Amino acid sequence: MKLTIIGGGxxxxxxxxxxxxxxxxxxxxxxxxxxxxxxxxxxxxxxxxRAMAEEAGASFEIILTTDAREAVTDADHVITSIRPGYExxxxxxxxxxxxxxxxxxxxxxxxxxxxxMRSAPAILDYARLVDQLAKPGAWVFNFTNPAGLVAQVxxxxxxxxxxxxCDSANKAQHAVSRxxxxxxxxxxxxxxxxxHLSWTRSVKIDAEPDGSNGEEVLPPLLKDPAFIQxxxxxxxxxxxxxxxxxxxxxxxxxxxxxxxxxxSLMNKSESRGEEVxxxxxxxxxxxxxxxxxxxxLAIYRDIMDRRSKSYMAHARGGADRVQMKxxxxxxxxxxxxxxxxxxxxxTDNPRYTGLNVPNNGSINGMRDDDxxxxxxWVKGDGVHPIQVGDIPDHQLQLMQDVKQYERYASxxxxxxxxxxxxxxxxxxxxxxxxxxxxxxVDAFIDAHQEWVGAWT
Length: 456
Description:
alpha/beta; Rossmann fold; seven-stranded antiparallel beta sheet; six-stranded parallel beta sheet; 19 helices
């Protein structure tokens, strides 16, 4: 197998290596191609990947390139993990949002749209290259934010084999596994919603493939104070937890606790984007100065650990994130989701996981061509969402409102239309004002002209 990562210079890339090494035999992996448009960063991160692969006894070759066509040609599958505008673009988006009094978060609301303006067209170009040059049946597994909206844009543009990957879709499964010390392979969760707007209403132990039988464990855990305190559910108000009766995606905090989150973020001296920019810049500079590969690996692991601990710290009063210990080979993160899907498609060994894919009748009240976040079975013949059926009216309404935004946003991005962009942000629950939407769109286009080009 030839596996290609577009955006191979991403700081996330080294985290795929341990999982790839463990899956090498099942995948038949021979070549891992890392492609990036930043040669110096690619050499630094690619060097780390090679060192980690050698340390783990990998048998596959790692090839670095800045040529996308070369990287994609004859690839069996492609992972996309790019950041047009780089970390600085994210920081700029957040400050534009805060200056207009709205939430700035790169996957949610106005800043999510700004990120999609830059990322979706670039991913679409790469996906078309995959269709032209990769092996027949190659899938694109997209890590790039906002994963759900990017997948919607590509699907609307006619790309058929696109899967949006986000590890938050499987957080309930991970939380139950770690809290109850049960291997992930024995758990089956029912997650539904949109990317960063999803709920999990069931987690069963040893269920049948169709979800029947098995022991349901989630409802009592949602009433267990110990479970709440060990998971991100602690950030939600008790009354909200009781009302929802589900394991909520952590990004619902931006919707259900909007005003307090906005106040907290606007009063921080450093935004999350600015923090990530600082940490990434520090890492790259230290990697350049390090004398040995062992020093580089230590620098990488230390800074990525610091970055992980401060994730959504505003919801914990600034405290570091503390995670429960994994059970067995529990590979939490994007790597395990994407590589698990690739292995399932390659070997026809079914895998159950949460993904961003077309609805196709899964959730009642959503269109078939809506990209949703839902539990799926992945097999040799593709991806099969579970049948969710009816969901609570208030959750469906929020889904439909945000999906209406995504439909307008997809059209706006593909047509480069300021008018459609303003309409998209107007219907988004976190913006909701046409004059404000127009100002935001103009500010984003002015700030990122190099990346988004001319909009009419």
